[in-house]
Amino acid sequence: MPSATDTGAVLAAPPADAAGTPPVAPDRRRWLALAVVMTASLMDLVDVTIVNIAMPSIQQDLGAGFGALQWITAGYALAFAVGLITGGRLGDIHGRKRLFLLGITGFTLASALCGLAWSPDVLVAARVLQGATAALMVPQVLSIIHVSFPAEERGKVFGMFGAMVGMGAVLGPLLGALLTEWDLFGLGWRPIFLVNLPIGVAGLLMGLKYVDESRAPKALKLDLVGMVVGAVGLLMLLYPLTHGREAGWPLWGFVSMGLSVPVLALFVAYEKAKTRRDGSPLVELALFRVRSFAGGIGVQLSFGLATGIFFLVWTLYLQLGLGWSALKAGLSGVPFSVAVSVAAGISVQVLVPRFGRKVLQAGALVMAAGTLLYLAEAARYGLAIAPWQMALPLVVMGLGMGLIVAPLTDLVLSEVPREHSGSASGIVNTTQQLGFALGLGLSSVAFFRVVDAADPAVQAMGPVFVDAFQHALWWVAAGLLLVFALVFALPRRGHARG
C-alpha cells in the first residue's frame, strides 16, 4: 500500500532555484527525458509498496524476526529521509543529471543485493542502501522537469505525475502479490526486488542519452555534519524502539532513547551555528517561526505515523492472522488504492480551491471513521471476514487519505516566502519519511505487544493477530484525530507564496 510519504516526495515543490540554467528551446527529446525520470520515480514508489505484501514470505524464508520486518521498511524510509535534502543539494552543485544517474545506478545495484540477500541483516542493510540511493535520485526529478519543460507545459506534466502516483498506488501491491505468488524460478519473494534490474539498466542507458545536464547558479553548501548528527539522534530513538521488544526491553534501549533527546538538541544548536556561519544549514530552523509551516510539519509527522503503523500491521493481519495468500491480500487492497487516487484528484481540482483546509480536516475524520468501521468489522467477523466485508471500510479510509495527501504539501508551504520554498519542501519531504519510519517503530507497542502477551501454549495465532490488529487500529484512529487538530494551524486557504 502506498503512503503519503511517497506521494508527497514526488509532487512537492522543487527548490526555488531548481530551474538553474535557463532552459533552451524545447525539443522532442524532453518527452523521452520525462519518460526516464517518471519511470525512476515509479520504480521508487512501487518499491516501497511492493515490499509490504511480501513480508510474511520474507519472514518464513529468511527466518526474520518482527523487528527485522519493521526495519526492512523503516530502514529505507529513514535513509531516504536523512539523505533527501543533501541529495538535492548535491544535484544543484555537481549536476542533476549526474546525481540522477548515480542514484539510479545505486538503486539498481541495491535492488540486486536485496534480491540476493541471504539473511535478514543483509536485507535490512540493502534496504538502507536503497533508501540512500533513492535520496540521490528522487530530488533531481522535478528539477530536471523544470529545466526541460517551458512553464506552459508543466501543468500537463504534473498532471501526468499525479496519474503516475495513482498507478503506483495500485501497481505496487498487485505486482508484489503476483511476483510472490508466481514463485518465478523458485525464487519466492526475491523477484519483487530483481524486477528493478532491467528497469534500472534501461533507465540508466536512456538517461545518459536523453536527460540534459543542469546545475543551480547559487547552490547551498552541504551540511554533512548536520546530516550525521541528525541521523545518529534519530537512530538512537528508532533502533531501540524497533528492536527493544525482541530483546525484552533492556535498559540500554531506554538509555539510548533518552540520550537521543540531547543529541537532537545538539543537532538544533549546530544548525543555528551553521546558519550564522554560511547560511547553508541542513534544516532552516527560521522556517518554524511560520505558524502554518510548523503546524504543517506536525500534520505530516502525525499522518506519517498513523499510516506507518497501519500499512505494516494490515499486511501481517491479512496473511499471518487470516492466513490469506499474498495475491488475495493484494487484491483486497485495490478498493483502497482506487479510492485514494479518485479522492486525491477531486481534492486538488475541486474541493480545496473552494473549502481550503476544511477538506484536510474532513479527510482526517473520514479516514478515522473508516478505521473505526474496519475495527468493528474485524471484531464482528473475526477469522471469517471476507474481502467484500472489508471493502467498505477500506474505501472510506482511502477516500479520507486521498483528501489529505494531494493538497497537504501545498497548504503547508503556502505561507512560506518563495525564496525559502526549496528548503521548506525538503523539510516537508523529510518529515513525511520520518513520520512513516516512526510509525513502523511504534508498531512494536501498537501491535506486537499484544502478540507477545499471548499465551505461548496457544498454537493458533490467528485470533491473536486479529486482536493485535484491532488494538493497532485504535492507535491509527488517535493519530488521525491528532492530524485533524493540527490542521487548524494551516491557513484557511492556500495562496501564492510571496
Description:
With 498 residues, the chain is an all-alpha fold. The chain has helices at residues 4-11, 29-53, 55-62, 66-94, 96-116, 120-137, 139-148, 151-182, 191-194, 196-210, 224-243, 251-278, 291-321, 326-332, 334-355, 358-381, 387-413, 421-452, 462-486. The model is unreliable at 1-5, 7-13 and 15-25 (pLDDT under 50).
Largest sheet: none
Distance linking N and C termini: 36 Å
Query: Beta-sheet strand percentage?
Result: under 5%
Helical residue percent band: over 70%
The number of distinct β-strands equals 0
Task: List low-confidence stretches.
Answer: 1-5, 7-13, 15-25
Principal-axes geometry comes out as globular
Number of helices: 19
Radius of gyration: 22 Å
Which structural class do you get from the secondary structure elements?
A: mainly alpha
Mean pLDDT: 83
What is the chain-wise order of helices and strands? HHHHHHHHHHHHHHHHHHH
Which helices and strands appear, and what pairs or packs with what?
Elements: H1 4-11, H2 29-53, H3 55-62, H4 66-94, H5 96-116, H6 120-137, H7 139-148, H8 151-182, H9 191-194, H10 196-210, H11 224-243, H12 251-278, H13 291-321, H14 326-332, H15 334-355, H16 358-381, H17 387-413, H18 421-452, H19 462-486
Helix pairs in contact: 1-8, 1-17, 1-18, 2-7, 2-8, 2-10, 4-5, 4-6, 4-11, 4-18, 5-6, 5-7, 5-10, 8-14, 8-15, 11-12, 11-18, 13-17, 13-18, 13-19, 15-17, 16-17, 16-19, 18-19
